[in-house]
Amino acid sequence: MSGFLTIFKKELIDTLRDRRTIIAMVIVPLLLFPVIIAITTRIQIAQAKKAKEKILRVAVLTHENTPLLKEMLSTRGDMRVVENIPEDSVASFIQKDSLDGAFIFSENFDRQVENLHAGQLKFYFKSTEDDDITKRRLTTIIEEFEEKLLSERFRRLNLDDSAVKAVDLVEIDLASMKEIFGKAVGGFLPYIFVIFCFIGAMYPAIDLAAGEKERGTLETLLTAPVRGIEILLGKFGVVVLTGIGSALVSLLGLYIGIRQTGEIPPEIMNVIWSMLEMKSILLLLSLLLPLTIFFAGVLLTLSIFAKTFKEAQSIITPVNFIVILPVAIGLIPGVTLNAKTALIPILNVSLATKEIIAGTIKYGLLAEVYISLVLLAGLSLYISSKLFLRESVIFRG
Fold first, then answer.
1. Would the N or C end of the chain have less CB density within 10 A of its end CB?
2. What is the value of pTM for the model shown?
3. Model confidence at 105, in pLDDT bands (50, 70, 90)?
């Protein structure tokens, strides 16, 4: 044990002296999220405000039908009716952003309405990246227009408009705001933890294995009066510590980013704080520990096999995509934590994180995730130790 602690201290000091490790483990996760959250929030708010305040240019081709819709649009200060647009040019005008939307009445619209049928009205628009605010604004006008026509129809028929409503649907959503919001944003958190956990462990793993081989210091270390397994465990402990440390720093960066964003509504902010309660954070960290041990085993194995630092980077870089893929799959709607997905590495952490944040985690499935991760971590440590103790691998190249 004393040999392991000695190696651990030595490797930790060397790692903390490495500028690349500090940048990857501390600087990037600490600064990245406050900057991302601040910039994206302000841009989204500015774009939404711009879309809502924009004066919409709308063409209305009535074909000598009721002018009611055109009058409704003309009286609004946030919309302008564009006259004299040929019907066959409407689509091109909208494609070129000369128009924001167009309404074209069918030739017999009034006759259809008078005969108690639905009059056909074509609505031309172009989907945008502003959450379709433009479409919703124009759709609201059509709903008001339809209400006026229906009111007139009921008046002519001497009917109460409530007579046509046979069902009074009352929607009761039993999902709490925490569950709804947690399911929506919970998939984003695994990206923070898993990716930064992997990146935080990657550079120390490369430096403590391939780096030492390249510098020629690994041979000196092997002549020390400690067992090879203690050397491996010392390096292993440092890699795991830096991975967990990077994830914790990213969590701190997320906290700072949320705190500095004043544009988030108070009710949403309360839900966020309820999701980031201490119990949830501890559960997340407990998932990260075996996952980081698994990462450390894989990274050290690949690194010790490489001849140089550069070769180790070339080997390990593609592994980033293998790590990202399961996390991305966890974002797909309909992919949930069950008895099968709880066994799939990395994906199970992504899905379990989403359930923990939403407060809907089933502890039986969580236990299955733990067992899966612990077995995987043990397997990676075993394989790493077998390779590390082989001279043909250590002195390769």
1. N
2. 0.63
3. very high
